[in-house]
Structure formats: C-alpha cells, structure tokens
Amino acid sequence: MATIVTVTLNPAVDKSVSVKQVVAEKKLRCSAPRYDPGGGGLNVARALKQLGGDALAYWTCGAPMGELLRQRLDSEGVRHTPVQIEQMTRENLVVYEESSSDQFRFGMPGAELTEAEADEFARRVAEIDPPPDYLVLSGSLPPGVGDDYYARLIRDASGSTRAILDTSGPPLGEGVAAGVYLIKPNAAELSELAGHEVRDDAEIERCARRLISEGRAEVVVVSLGAGGVVLVTAEACEQIRAPTVKIRSKVGAGDSTVAGIVLGLSQGKSVAEAVRLGVAAGSAAVMTDGTELCRGDDTWRLYQQMSGDHNAGS
C-alpha cells in the first residue's frame, strides 16, 4: 500500500464539554471535559486509523499542552513525529448546549513559530526517506510562517510525492500556485481561487477545469456540504451525493473526507471511487458526537450503500 504523511503546523488539543444552557454572565456548570487531538493533518491521520489505514503525522509540539497531545496520539495508536517548538500548543474549546443541541466552537490562536523552527520543520518533512507517496497538508497555518509555507513544502517534496492540500485563504492560493495533486475547496474557497463568485454547478466545473488546465491541480473536489461533492478531473466531472444521515456534529467531517479520499487512492482505487469513500467518511463523521471523527463501521457501510446506488443508477 502507498505511504501517507500528514502535516499539521497548527495542532490543538480540543477540549469539549456540555452545559444545560449558555447564559451570559452566569456561572455555567459544565460536564467533565473530554480532550481530543485536533488540527487538520492530525485529524486526517486519526481518521485513517479508524478506517483501517495508516499515516505518519508530522506536527509541531510545544510545552505541557503539546505533551498532552502527544499522549493522546499515543493512546490512539497514531504514528507521529512531533517537532519541538518553544511556545505552547494551543487548546480549543467546544461547548455543546443541551437545551438547544447547538454547538459553540472557540478556536484559539496557534503557537507562533520562530524562523528557525519553521526551517527545521520544513527540513524534517523534505528529508523523509523514502519520500511518501502522498503528502497531506491540512489545516490553518500558525503565526510566524508566511502564507507561502505550504507552497514551500510542496516545492521541496520529491517529484514522486502527490500533494493533497486542504486549507483556505491565501495559503490555499499560494499552495495551488506551486502545483498540487488534489485540493478540496468549498464553493467560497473556489470563488477566491477563481477571483469571482462561483454561482452554480456549471461555473464550478469551469473554474475547476481552469485550475487543472493551468497546472495548479490535477484533481479538484468541491465540497457542497450535505449535498456531497463535485469531482472534476481533466477527463470528467461528476457530482457524488452524500447519503442521508442523522447529523449530530459537523466537526471533523472535512478531515474525515480527506482521510477517506487518500486511503482510497493509497489502495489503488480510481479517483471517483476514492472520492466516494471520502464522502462516506465525511457523512459518517457527522453521525458522531462532539469532536469525534468518522467510525470505520459506519464509513464502510455507507460506502457500500453508495457504491450499490451508483452501480444501480449507471
């Protein structure tokens, strides 16, 4: 099976609690907190583990919160390489309001990397031997690194490595300028890349094909949320609809989708089948509570259901 490395420059410990009702200026009695690893690349590696796959996760580790994150990854059996930094790894807070079933997500600023730390991280990733078949660059960038940092990692990667980029804003634009294998923008992010608002499916296809023809990406997977995705390659355009499931929490759905896609690719599936597995994993993730990612049993059941529906309709 192909090898997968994930990169997380801005990891977090996600602390999740529940409370009966969120009321301003009142002392709120919360449930016992749950601590989970967070950050795009770490979540992709964790979801891969749930799906029966494997990845090596590179991430920045700082101070006591970084040590807690290291322990959580070890307890989940995720293979990982922490790269030490001076500042403390961030902690995010997720609050579930029982009275409304609403979820409040509070994201903290990341640890600021020094130039030396950013250089060391880039060197460590570039010198992975043998080079990975897939390099997943996922999540936001922390303070202290430029918007072109993902582009730097992509350019430094081996020519045999396929880069999968899942981020937003300027780092996404800079990253695709370096040329990637696959991106997973939503409609708003695709609009940013196109320089104008993308209004319909036809425009999604046109903008994605432009990215492909310009050599900025080989595969564009445009997320439609509950509607599934639009998959665009040089040869085809296909909408892959998400199965209908009961939504409990949308946290981690995007990372689970990326995990399913890269697992499928690493297993030699066609691009369309790999993306179908990704959509199944994303749908499985919204069935779980809090910050929990996709579960393997749910994902494979949904994937078989989707594959059966697809074959029946073809």
Short précis:
It contains ten helices and 13 strands. It is an alpha/beta fold and 314 residues long. The mean pLDDT is 95.
Overall description:
There is one protein chain. With 314 residues, the protein is α/β, with parallel strands linked by helices. The chain is 39% helix and 23% strand. The chain has 10 helices and 13 strands. The chain has helices at residues 40-50, 63-75, 115-126, 149-156, 169-177, 187-194, 201-213, 253-266, 271-286, 296-313, and strands spanning 4-8, 12-19, 34-38, 56-61, 79-84, 90-97, 102-106, 134-138, 162-166, 180-183, 217-223, 229-232, 237-240. The strands form 2 sheets. The chain has a 9-stranded mixed beta sheet, with helices on both faces. Helix 5 (169-177) links the parallel strand 9 (162-166) and strand 10. Helix 6 (187-194) packs across helix 7 and helix 9 (271-286) crosses helix 10.
SSE arrangement:
Blueprint: E1 4-8, E2 12-19, E3 34-38, H1 40-50, E4 56-61, H2 63-75, E5 79-84, E6 90-97, E7 102-106, H3 115-126, E8 134-138, H4 149-156, E9 162-166, H5 169-177, E10 180-183, H6 187-194, H7 201-213, E11 217-223, E12 229-232, E13 237-240, H8 253-266, H9 271-286, H10 296-313
Parallel strand pairs: 1-4, 1-8, 2-6, 4-5, 8-9, 9-10, 10-11
Antiparallel strand pairs: 2-3, 6-7, 11-12, 12-13
Helix pairs in contact: 1-8, 4-5, 6-7, 8-9, 9-10
